[in-house]
Amino acid sequence: MLPMEVELTEKSSPRLAAVLKLHREWVLAGKSAGVIYVCGSEDIARRVTADGEQAGLSLKRGTMRVELLETIQRQAVEACPHLVATGWHLNGTVAA
């Protein structure tokens, strides 16, 4: 199992710490390989990364991955040639 969290707005510090601790416990218990965080901004991504490291998760060990939502959206559009060919934009509009 590889859980995914979507962090578009900042959680309170205690709430984020509790969620990250739960993911660490799942890794230690062999219930998951780690966690993927999709973040709404660079500030949120930095906070999740720092708090995740404090909770015992690690980018280097592969028990945590942090990506920006913007990056995931761009990769999804680029992976679908039909969307690119129709002029699909990340905001969901089509070029005129």
Describe the structure.
The protein is of the alpha/beta class. The chain is built from four helices and three strands. The protein has a three-stranded parallel sheet with strand order 1-2-3. Helix 2 links the parallel strand 2 (35-39) and strand 3 (64-68). Helix 1 packs across helix 2. The longest helix is centred in the first third of the chain and has 16 residues, at 13-28. The model has no long low-confidence stretch (mean pLDDT 90).
Chain-averaged pLDDT: 90
* Largest beta-sheet characterization: 3 strands, parallel
CA radius of gyration is 16 Å
- Taken as a percent bin, the fraction of beta residues is 5-15%
Number of strands: 3
Secondary-structure class? alpha/beta
Order of strands in the sheet with most strands: 1-2-3
What is the overall shape?
Answer: elongated
Give the helix proportion (percent range): 40-55%
Explain the layout of strands and helices:
Blueprint: E1 4-7, H1 13-28, E2 35-39, H2 42-55, E3 64-68, H3 69-78, H4 81-85
Parallel strand pairs: 1-2, 2-3
Keywords, please?
96 residues, alpha/beta, 4 helices, 3 strands
Question: What can be said about this structure in brief?
Answer:
Helices cover 47% and strands 15% of the residues. The chain has 96 residues and is α/β, with parallel strands linked by helices.
